[in-house]
Design brief:
Layout: E1 8-11, H1 17-28, E2 32-37, H2 40-50, E3 54-58, H3 64-78, E4 83-86, H4 107-132, E5 137-143, H5 156-178, E6 182-190, H6 199-202, H7 208-215, H8 227-238, E7 249-252
Parallel strand pairs: 1-2, 1-4, 2-3, 4-5, 5-6, 6-7
Length: about 270
């Protein structure tokens, strides 16, 4: 039997990148997967490419009514929700590089990042608990970041929002246990994963390769991670194999958080 056979999963921000990779592996492991995003054309194309186990719906994670509508539809169509992956997120640099340090970031930009990264996770967790309560079990997986564990001077709002996701995941885990529910909540903390989110920072010109090397120069494994490597952790947390894991944070960072960077010796 495939690891998610008979389960129904909702993945936010699934039109591309990590979310699309998670949706793809969930479907391959037997789940009925609902991909959601605000990039409707890309999301529909991704669901079609995944196949019969996948469908797409529009969901702006910042909008409470969107969450309610999507959850009602999932329960009408499938009768249950077993897994929610809160993956949708923004860096604040989607429209180009701008000041996001603690001194110069605008309150408007600060709020914009938190509305997606934190408010979206709060709303998703709340709706998932309510949807899963009747069956008494389920898995909520929140995609945080290495930036939620350390300070990021040039991306204060992003780091703050991801730190809050880390903490809220633990709160949700404890709340569900307190309620006598086998609804687990865990967070995944990727570092530099090569997704479209990085494109504004990497550029497309001759400087791209140099920018890529600079972004991973302090990573002991000296490379970007891959979306499918994050998807493998999400699969574990979604499966019954992780039935005793809740309130846990899993780091996938090429060794950055292990300590001082271990740089490979340069060739002569």
């Amino acid at each position: 039997m495939r690891r998610l056979e008979g389960k129904v999963a909702l993945v936010t921000g699934a039109a591309r990148g990590i979310g699309e990779a998670i949706a793809r592996v969930f479907a391959a492991e037997g789940a009925q997967v609902i991909l959601s995003d605000i990039r409707d054309a890309e999301g529909q194309a991704a669901a079609k490419a995944i196949g019969a186990n996948a469908s797409y719906c529009h969901l702006d994670v910042r909008v409470e009514l969107d969450w309610k509508r999507v959850m009602v539809q999932i329960l009408l169509d499938h009768g249950q929700l077993d897994v929610l992956v809160n993956n949708a997120g923004v860096t604040g640099f989607e429209d180009g590089m701008r000041l996001h340090d603690p001194e110069h970031a605008t309150l408007e930009d600060w709020h914009a990042v938190h509305r997606t990264n934190l408010d979206g996770v709060f709303l998703g967790c709340r709706q998932a608990i309510r949807a899963m309560r009747e069956q008494g079990r389920g898995s909520i997986i929140n995609i945080s970041s290495r930036s939620g564990l350390v300070g990021i001077p040039a991306a204060a709002a992003y780091a703050s929002s991801k730190a809050a996701v880390r903490n809220h995941s633990k709160t949700v885990a404890l709340y569900c246990a307190e309620q006598g529910l086998a609804i687990r909540c865990n967070s995944i903390h990727p570092a530099a994963i090569l997704t479209p989110m990085w494109e504004p920072m990497l550029g497309r010109g001759p400087e791209r390769e140099a920018n890529m090397r600079a972004c991973v120069h302090d990573t002991p494994m000296q490379r970007f991670g891959k979306p499918e490597e994050v998807a493998a952790l999400a699969l574990l947390l979604a499966s019954d194999e992780a039935a005793y894991m809740t309130g846990t944070e899993l780091n996938i960072d090429g060794g950055i958080l292990a300590g001082s960077a271990a740089m490979p010796a340069m060739e002569a």
